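[SOLVED] Need 3D model of a two-part complex

Original post:
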Amino acid sequence: MTTHHMFTAGVAPPHYGVPMRILHTSDWHLGRTLHGVDLTEHHSTYLDHLVDVVVSERPDAVLVAGDVYDRAIPALRAVELLSDALSRLAAHTQVILTPGNHDSATRLGFLSDALHERLVIQSQVSRSWRPITITGSGGDSALVYALPYLDPDHARPVMADALDDVHIHRSHEGVMTAALDLITRDRTTRPEHAASIVMAHAFVVGGEPSDSERDITVGGVQSVPSGVFAGHSYVALGHLHGPQRISMPDATVARYSGSPLAMSFSERNHVKSTVLVEIENGVTRTELLDAPVPRPLTDVTGTLEELLSPRFAEQRHHWVRAAVTDPLRPQQLNQRIREVFPHALVITHQPPATTRAANGPLDIAKVRSPHQVAHSFITDVTDHALTTAEDAVLATAIERAQATEGSR
Amino acid sequence: MHIHRLEFQAIGPFAGQHAIDFQALTASGLYLLEGPTGSGKSTIIDIIVFALYGKVASSASSDDRMRSMHAPDTRDSYVDLIMETGAGIFRVRRTPERMRPKKRGAGHTKQQASIQLWRLSSADLDTLMAAAPGDEPLPPECVPGEFVSNRIDEASREIGDAVGLNRDQFTQTIVLPQGEFAQFLKADPEQRQSLLQKVFGTHLYEETQRQLAAMRREVGTARDEANRAVRDAATRFITAAHLDDDTATLLTAGLANAETTREAVATCIEHLDEQSATAHTALQEARTAATAADKKLADARNTVERIKRRQVLTTQHGDLTDTTPRIEKLRHNVRTAHAAARVTPSITAKHTAQGALTAEIEALRALTGDPTLDAASPREELAAHRDAAWEQRDTRAAERARLQELQPSGAHVTTLSEQLSTTTTLRTRCVENLTHVTAQATELPQQRKELVDALAAAQRAAASLPLHAAAVRETQELLDIHQQHTALNEEYEHARTKVAACLGQVREAAEAEKQARDARIAGIAAELAITLQPGDPCAVCGSVEHPHPAQPAPGAVTPQKVEQAEQKRRSAEDELATARNALTSRETRIEQLTQRLAGATLQDTTKRHNEALEAAHLAGIAEQDTTKLHSQIDALDQRAHELSTQRDTLGQQIAAHDVTIAQLTADLTSTQQRLDAALAPHLTHEAQTLDAVIDLVTDAAHTTQKIADAWDRLLRCVDDVAGRTAEVASLVHEAGFTTEDEATAAALSAEAIDQAERDISEHQSALHAVNQALKAPDLQNLPPLDTIDVAALELAAETAREALSQAQNNHTGVTNVATHANSAAKLLDSALVQRDQVGADTAAIIRMADVATGNSADNPRSITLQTYVLMKKFEDVVAAANERLITMSNGRYELQRSDTKEDVRTRKTGLALKVLDHDVEAARDPRTLSGGETFYVSLCLALGLADMVTAEAGGIELGMLFVDEGFGTLDPQTLDAVLHVLTTLRDSGRTVGVVSHVEAMKQSISDRITVVPSPHGGSTVSVRST
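Solution:
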């Protein structure tokens, strides 16, 4: 177990009484596409921004709480991006990175042991309750317990081993509880450190998901109660893409940093940010640093005419999800929309409910009886209404048919 | 449907036994079948399809995949599936066909596929789910569930019914097999139609169509019938109304039009009615005329008849008047007869009394023997006779009574004498007995004495018995000794002989020995010579040379022989000695015996023995006799005693009898005396005894009685006669006759009187009637007969009647026609109405049926009801699919139902499918989609189908979905979208199992069935679930 010392890189002399400063981000999802559009460029923009922030804010550490890649085997460009970003970040501050559920922990943790102290990729479950010490510029030190994404099936045996074969429930809650137990145990053996920070990649209860998180349900449940994380200075959470704070039963501050970019239309209204955490004398303060928005996401709804009108002029350069409400689908809809909204990602036709019912498919089985069905058949096919006698004929025929059916 | 549990052994790459609990996987809603290529992921799906349908999922794969090559021959392959559908919970266990080693002999034999199907209750299901696969298989009767079948065809049908789909349909909706998921998307409309029909249960509409067609046929028949009815009614009308040909033709032609027909009919009817009215009037007139003529005729007839009647009556009157005198006479006779009738009885009585009197006198004369008695004597005389007779009688009666009193005594006497004689007899008998007994008693002493003597003799004889017995024994012994003696003598002889023989033998033997010795000695030289050795000294001469050794002579005797002879001699000597001993001993014995015998010969002894035996025998007998004699003597004594007792008894009896006899004699004597005294006066020479006397007296008494009675009667008769005579006289006078004879003469029998009275009354009444009749009013003032001409009037009436009947016929005929025509017209009318009605009713049916079957002009696209329903449902399916498809394709693709014909040959079913590409706004054939696009479009379609089916009542519940591969064709974004869709399915209660080796799937889906290849070949299965 090595202790990591702060490498101030000759920036400022250590002052005391200066709070510990940490930058918390997560869910980069490098390599992800948005409705078919490649986001590499936007990711690159964000990473540049992040480096700038690190340079300007001079945090003591950068915590990346999982889902750095979008896929277990990432695209080449994603790898390049990450490699570049981490190198640059590590030049300025300590970086602690954990894999999320999208990453392949093993692949991400390749040669992590050999990395220098500036860059820690904590990808092994068995190491997760071994803290990483970060030293603040004020001389305080804090312990960072970096939990990778704990897959219940993989993490249980490792935890159980460490906890002397106690039974761990096959759920996120189970493994997370076990992990935090181990962390707490370790924490109590190191009382000299001022603060403890836990990094975790999980769906904590109270968090609001968006459409872009992958479902991690195990044993029917995908969430972890927030109380598990109690007793620490700060909990740096990853997985949910909306930046949000999680209410904790005690004074612990727990936040999702959220993804730096919007990954789906459900996030269109999120204010993407990076979290700057200051811990001083046991008090934790957070500040949100807005992330650049290369291109916003917008929903537009209206008739084609409306959409093409100047009313939506502002949104023309956005990534647009268009819902066209004309009663009848306009000709060349997609093309026409795309002419005006070159970045239209999703174009749907949503006529109003009533006309849809008249022209569209009839909800036969649910609403209508066989008699009604036959009635509508006649009226549809012949374009005449039925006389009473004809109606009666249909009724008789159906009764007889039902009788035969019933007797079979 | 849902699967609860799958168990299998030796199937595909799985050599061992595995069980997969699907309930836990179903709970999670989405699970992954993962494993390397060829490890057996698709096999698990094949197993499920095989369990249900007996064939694997993919039509391309063969069923050979089933039997595991990795399992030893001895292990059987089976699949055991527990599933639940709307029809219930079922368990099916199949073994695939395979080659197994023969039990006997070498080689392999084909083992047929087998199946077992059970229906389970929830409790059975729980039991089976709780059982671990390694448990012992239960015996057949303990297996939970209701056994349904083990015949493949039967069970397959059951399963098919339970699931609701056949294999092809199953592999388009529930299982999307590898490479074949797009079948439904790319199918042609016919196939799609059959699947949709199956899945949605549109049988009802098909049936409705059929029913409408049937109704139309019925209706057609009804219409034809109505038309025919109209035509028939018209024909009948024509016939009924007797229409002429022209009118008839017109009518028939115009039948189609109800209005004109009705008019024509009305006209005809009118015409007929007119005719009818005319005929009616004519009839009335004729009737009146006929009635008048008839009346006239009747009157005339009446008058004629009255005249005739009057004539008859007049004649009758005359007759009656003629007979009146006779009648008067009769009347007179009747009167007198009545008077006489009052008298005649008395006269008769008088005659009777007189007769009686005569008879009595006769009788009395006979009785008394006095012929002089006369009835004419004066009454006082007769009375005196009567009294005397009564006196006589009384006397006799008293006498008789007195005598009767004596009767008991007589009886008593008789009794006594009887007793006396009896007692005397008894006494005599006793006396006899006594004599007899006495005689016997006197004999006895003599007999006793004899017996005693005999006894003494016998005793003496018996005493000598021991003596004789001893003699017997002695003599017996002597006899024995005799015998022995004889025997010994014989032996002695034998022994002597033997001794002699032995002696001879000894001599011989000694002789032989001597000879042998001599011979030996003679030959010894030779013996010695043999032993001579040159150089050795001879034993005899001591010479060492032996020039002439003696040669053994032939037949030389050896020492052995000599010994033998010696031996023989010795034994012979022994024998001799023995024999001599024997002889000696015998001699001794014989001497002894002879001494004992003491000179007695055998004969003597025998004789003495016999004598002794006899004497002993006699003595024995004598002893027996003593016993007998003893008893005899005792008996005798007893007898003596008895006899004396008897004597005493008899003596007593005799004495008693004497006493009785004396008494009786005394009584008898006294009674007899009394009796004789009383009887004496009555005795006559005829009657000596009491009884005889009594009889005599009784007779006399009777006679006197009779006489007395007879006298009484006589007197009465006399009185009677007198009385009657007086009576007769008075009556005769009263009746107005002078004499009795007159009265008698006037008498008439009752019948005669009656008859006469009847005649009289008849005559009277007849006369009265005739008179009354003649006074009747209608017989007055009659015209003369010849003024009436009946014949002419008859003729007129006849004529009038004929005219009437003619008029009537005419009328009837016309009226009939009119009536029939009217009713026929009504029928025709109603037939027309009916036809109109039918037409109206059936129009609806015909139209509906034509439209529903697509044969109507109103139905331009010729869509049948069923097709329409299917189309609409298909549209629903497409709409549901589109909801997901839009999202997955980012709004680019949309499925659309198309009406176009796929092919020239196929019918339009309205079930063609097109993919609308919104980027180019063109419709594409689904077959032009890329691999990945095809995959997710098919998936959307399958899910859309399932959605619709679930919503449908009467459809099948598609609870599960298996997607076998295809995810590898998707880019990550689409894969995420697909996964998202699949996870949302879980919420709607559908279970999705995906087979994939895609890494992202593994990361996303935690519940899984992992197929792991084992190092020795084959694979194993492990399940990870909650």
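Edit: Residues 1-15, 355-365 of chain A have pLDDT under 50 and may be disordered.
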